[in-house]
Amino acid sequence: MSRFRNRTEAGQALAAELARRGYADPVILALPRGGVPVAIEAVRTLKAPMDLVMVRKIGAPGQPELAVAAVVNGDDPQLAVNASVARHAGLSMQDIERMAEAQLAEIRRRRALYLKGRAQVPVEGRTAIVVDDGIATGATMRASLKAVRQRHPAKLVLAVPVAAPDTLEDLSAEVDDIVCLFRPLMLGAVGAHYADFGQTPDEDVIRLMDEADRLQARPAS
């Protein structure tokens, strides 16, 4: 049985739990594309600004869905390597760094498309809440958290509707707090816990980022 109808429902439930915890001065940082429709619900509820964490998976040769590593852009790109997968694939660190260059180029393209020249939202001294639609192996999330930590938030929170318990345990050293609504012992695929887990198109990411801007511009009631 699916746990959530879609990312919107999952985001609403996650937003309610985040609101209950009362984090001070939050900033919502979404992993595109699937994390954005989840994160916008936290933006609506917490009245917080939203930015994107641009992360790309580096797949094994011939097995693109098998994550060897993940890379996040920035002045100092962060690379999180799955050492056991890299060894099995026979890839050296130099091989992985070379493969990362192509993904960094795609990150730059997507940031220009999604954010249309917007400046990064400052997170230093604030509560940075990193949101995705779910976590299986955690390679992309680990890279994202390391990159956000370098921006010196006062508190770093990982927030997802569903994740594997062992993955959350592995990621716990990277964050100050974890908010996860559903931790199935046998996760399988993240999409198995959603009735509708269709791909989030670029147009929806752009639309939701525009909405987040409008919500921030709206005077407080």
Summarize the structure.
Keywords: Glycosyltransferase, Transferase. Pfam families: Pribosyltran (PF00156). This protein is of the alpha/beta class and 221 residues long.
Can you give a write-up of this model?
The protein has 221 residues and is an alpha/beta fold. It has a domain at 7-55 and 119-217: Rossmann fold (3-Layer(aba) Sandwich). Helices cover 41% and strands 21% of the residues. It has helices at residues 7-21, 35-46, 83-89, 93-115, 139-149, 165-171, 202-217, and strands at 26-30, 50-52, 55-60, 63-72, 78-81, 127-131, 155-162, 177-182. A five-stranded parallel β-sheet has the order 2-1-6-7-8, with helices on both faces. Helix 2 (35-46) packs parallel to helix 7 (202-217). The chain is globular, with a radius of gyration of 17 Å. Keywords: Glycosyltransferase, Transferase. Residues 10-176 form the Phosphoribosyltransferase domain. GO terms for molecular function: glycosyltransferase activity. This is Phosphoribosyltransferase.
